[in-house]
Amino acid sequence: MQVNPxxxxxxxxxxxxxxxAERDGHVDFKNKYVRTEKFVRERRARKxxxxxxxNPYTDDPLIAGSLRTTANTxxxxxxxxxxxxxxxxxxxxxxxxxxxxxxxxxxxxxxxxPTFTAHPKVDAVSGEVITYGYEAxxxxxxxxxxxxxxxxxxxLEEFHFLAPYCGLCHDISITPNYIVFQMFPLVCDLEHLKQxxxxxxxxxxxxDSKKKSLMVTIGAGxxxxxxxxxxxxxxxxxxxxxxxxxxFPDKDGKxxxxxxxxxxxxxxxxxxxxxxxxxxxxxxxxxxxxxxSRIDDRFQGLKYDWTFLAAIDETRPYDPVASRxxxxxxxxxxxxxxxxxxxxxxxxxxxSALFGEPSFIPRSADAPEGDGFVIxxxxxxxxxxxxxxxxxxxNFSNHIALVKLPLRxxxxxxxxxxQREDMLDQEAELVDFEWVPATFDGPVASEISxxxxxxxxxxxxx
Length: 462
Prior knowledge:
By secondary structure, this protein is mainly beta. It has helices at residues 37-45, 190-194; strands spanning 18-23, 29-33, 74-78, 81-85, 92-94, 101-104, 121-122, 129-134, 143-149, 155-162, 167-168, 172-174, 179-181, 184-187, 201-202, 219-220, 225-229, 232-240, 263-270, 283-286, 290-294, 306-311, 333-338, 344-348, 353-355, 359-362, 372-380, 385-392, 399-404, 415-417, 456-461. The strands form eight sheets. Strands 16, 17, 18, 19 and 20 form a five-stranded antiparallel sheet that branches. Strands 25, 26, 27, 28 and 29 form a five-stranded antiparallel sheet that branches. β3 (74-78) and β4 form a beta hairpin. The longest helix has 9 residues, at 37-45.
């Protein structure tokens, strides 16, 4: 059971998400909601209690003072724990085998910030984990906290600082010596919240606007990676020609239509010693149109060549009839680009398929960069079902496996692959086999309530 939102048109980011896990060798599937405080209280009340996205002033008084996060943005495996993340609160820990919600996780009391990023980064060389939180002083505040953990989970350092404004800082990129924070041009104003407004208001003006802004007026997607060379920090990401989060309009209610948005892949050069803080125009690495950039994580913070992302292959057709009248979904393929040469290729799954964020899996621990497999969730509009695709990078345009689920998994935001050797209990099963007899001589008498199927190795938010 889910409850309808308190406000019509509430953004998807405020909805509860379920966690799907799939495992290798055979295909098992488990799907559960994260039992956040919000989820439990609303289920008990049988109605929505939390109001607008990240606006507590619109909540039902029954939930006042409660933890209102949905923990619905990303899911990561850190320090032997499976953590569901949303950047407005601390993570929720889940049992990695049963997906049972354990509870709020505060890193054994070491983490002091009330918010935690949806995108912690792991240094590929040291194994250190770089984390941060923004709006650390409360809604509308400029306070930010950076925290560094060892690979074992011990806090190494913590630093408090102020952002230039209270803006959306959803992602970072790292190098061995630097962190690049992305301040998206969406801003929060406390008085606007108190009046019942959206948490974020866009500063990206529409093309017909006569207003001018001294702030960076470009949209940007998730970072691909960053690296250092000759004292310069280079960071790569898609640059979008407008407000990609168009469900957060500007103060006049204007936002671009989704079909009007497009992107190219860019590289910014940042000089830490520069006295002029104006950001120079980036190098255009590739004209690929996409988002949700992923890399071979063994090269996080290092010079690299390969990026994988959810992409729009404009050479491919779309079938609105087979898609049951839905408008063009956007990400109709998985794209791969070589950042050094600009070469691109795509995996396409037909004229009515929508792709989520891909994940890359190295073929082996010592395989060359980008040599391995890409997995991704596909939602098919023609069948109303979901599939998990597995692609060998040696033949990127074709899949080597397609796991067909007997249900539709809600489109999510982020997901990650976890190697079996990284799991503390490697032999634990994803599904419950206690009712299965050691030998089978006839009908099983016990009743089976509910059935689930899917695979071992990939974990995603949906």
